[in-house]
Amino acid sequence: MDRCITALRASDEKLAKNPGTMYNWQRTWLQRHEGGGGTVSFGVAWYDEEFFNDKKNVFMERMHDAIFSKIGISADAVHVSHWRVVAN
Question: Which single residue of 3, 17, 40, 67 has CA 20 to 30 Å from 73?
Answer without folding.
Answer: 17
